[in-house]
Structure formats: C-alpha cells, structure tokens
Amino acid sequence: MNNMQFARHRRLRQTANLRAMVRETHLHTEDFIYPIFVIEGEEIKNEVPSMPGVYQQSLDYAIEDVRAAVDLGIRSIIVFGVPNEKNDIASQAYCEHGIVQRAIRAIKNEFPELVVIADTCLCHYTSHGHCGIVENGTIINDDTLELLAKTAVSQAKAGADIIAPSNMMDGFVAAIRQALDEEGFTYVPIMSYAVKYASAFYGPFRDAAHSAPQFGDRKTYQMDPANRLEAFREAQADVSEGADFLMVKPALSYLDIIRDLKNHFHLPIVAYNVSGEYAMVKAAAQNGWIDEKAVVLEMLTSMKRAGADLILTYFAKDVARWLKEEK
Predict the structure, then answer these.
(1) Residues 45, 86, 219, 249: which is the catalytic one?
(2) Which of 6, 50, 125, 242 could form a disulfide with 204 if both were Cys (CB 3.0 to 4.6 A apart)?
(3) Which annotated residues bind Zn(2+) (predicted)?
(4) Is 131 labelled as part of a ligand binding site?
C-alpha cells in the first residue's frame, strides 16, 4: 500500500473553506428573476393553494412584495396579470389600463432601477384559456401575432424594461421585434420563451394565473417533452428573429436542453424553475420529508451548472435571504 500511486481527490474537500475555494458554480442574488401575480382590486392577497407562499395580490400589496424583494438585493421581477375581464380577443392584454400595464407603471415609479419584465401572452386574458385567437377549435397563428405585437408595445409604453413572450406561436419574436422598433422601442430587449415544452409541471401556475385551457391542450404550439433537436430549431429561429435572451421552460427536467443552448448560442440563457417544481419541493418540505433549503439550493445550483445565466424562480426571495444570511 505504501508504494501505491493514485489520485487524492479528497484533499480538496477537507474543510468548508477549502471546498468553497474550489467551488465551480455559485448562486448570486442578481441571478434571480422574481415572479409576481397582480390581480384587480385593492387589499387583496390570495394565497395560491397549490403554491404555498405565492400570492395573487392587488397592486397595493404587490408593491410591498416587490419592496421586500428589492431590499433583499433582487434586481429583476416578471409581472403576470390576472384580469377581471376575459374575452375571445384578449383585449385586456393590450389595454392601456390593463392590470399588467398599471402594475408596470406603479412598480417603475416606485423602483425606477428595478428591471421589470412583462410576460407577453394571451392565455390569462382569453375566455378559452389558449395563447392565441381560436377559430373552430384551432389556434390561428398569424392573427395571434398581431395581438401579441400590440400587447408588447402597450407593455413597453407602460415602462417595461424587457418583453418576455411566452406563447410559442411561430414568428412571435419577429412580429414583436418589428412592432417595438416601429414604435421607437428599439432598445427594449426580448426575453423569448424560446424552448417551452408542453409540460405537466405547469398546473399550479394555471391556478395562480387562472389560465387553464377550457378545451383541448397546448400540444399544437408547445413542444413535445421527448424532443431535443426541435429545441435547436426553435432557439435558432428566435435568434434569427432578434431575441436577446433564450429561455428554457421547465428547467429541472430539461437541464440537458439548457446545456445544449449554452453550448450553441451566445445569448444569456434563462431557466424557468416552474410552478410544479416549486410545489413538489414545498409539499415534501411541509411533510418533513426533505430539507427545503438544502434541496432548493442544490436544485438551483444544478441549473446554473447546466448553463443558465438567470433563473426565474418562485424561491427567489427565500434564496436571496439565505445567501444574505450566509454572508
């Protein structure tokens, strides 16, 4: 045994400080995008049953929620709207006084340095819950593009720093980029939900946003979870149309896709740690089956290690608090 030669990997694991010195992947508070759900009315704060700790909030409460996030060092949020009125043409999505537009104005007025991202989709605003115009049970792609472009422009006019279209219509980045440029918003970037799978992990979000489809599913426009090469085609199309960020949604079951995009495209990669991923961890933690903090940190670190530059996560405030405590 005295003459054996073999690698001593454990030498670099002996103490906490030594492990920290050679750690390859780090989480930073500025990595996180914090999502909020803004609802019509005043003094309303409804916890989402399937997402403990996540709320539908009227604007007065949302401002305080954002303030808490800013105080923790979070630099960006994304706004999802829950309107009172829905119809077949999603008119509240692009209304000047729509819930998202009002929320953006109020938040930017209160926190001018905060990066405010607008989710740009129609499903929260349509009476049928689909992400586009529907005729005879079919989602009409090109007619939908016109409404998405109107929505993006209205959000930019309200003060959104980034437009984040999540609808997965063909050509949506090109349509939005053209509309923004024509209205003088040349410098407003697009954070494209470039690779969005038709996933079973979205259920709790649909509770929060009241956006479940009233018929059928979204498999004609969201991607098949079995496909990998399709992700390249979707991402490449969005890059060629002018996307400034590429998002992969969901994150946890698609870490290979995050790495693929990181290896092939020179744009910031965003991982969406979606509602189902959040709900599973919360449920297990509430039952005492896991250590929530340890699991969340490991999970988000895996997304960074896979190649994500930014992580959209409902855990953003929790993790920001944990990182602050560690310092």
Answers:
(1) 249
(2) 50
(3) 121, 123, 131
(4) yes
Give the other-Cβ count within 10 Å of 200's Cβ.
10
Q: How confident is the model over 57-85, as pLDDT tens digits? A: 999 999 999 999 999 999 999 999 998 88
**105 labelled ligand-binding:** no
Tally of residues, the chain: 327
CB under 8 Å to 203, separation ≥6 — which residues? 50, 275, 276, 279
What CA–CA distance (Å, rounded) separates 91 from 149? 13
Check the CA dihedral 267-268-269-272 and report its sign.
Answer: negative
Per the residue annotation, which of 86, 150, 157, 196 is the catalytic one?
Answer: 196
User: What is the dihedral sign for C-alpha 171, 223, 51, 288?
Assistant: negative
Over 90: is that where the pLDDT of 278 sits?
yes
pTM (two decimals): 0.93
In order, the DSSP letters of 152-173 are HHHHHHHT-SEEEE-S--TTHH
Our answer to whether residue 157 is catalytic in this structure is no
Q: In this structure, how many other beta carbons lie within 10 angstroms of the beta carbon of residue 323?
A: 18
Phi, psi of 124 (to 5 degrees): -70, -20
Give yes or no for a contact between 56 and 208, defined as CB atoms under 8 angstroms apart: yes
Strands (E), the chain: 32-39, 45-47, 55-57, 76-82, 115-120, 133-135, 138-140, 162-165, 191-196, 245-249, 269-273, 310-313
Tokens of 218: 């979204």
Alpha-carbon gap, residue 247 to 271, rounded angstroms: 6
* 38, 41, 45, 47: CA torsion to nearest 10: -60
- Is 234 part of any known ligand binding site? yes
218 is in an annotated binding site: yes
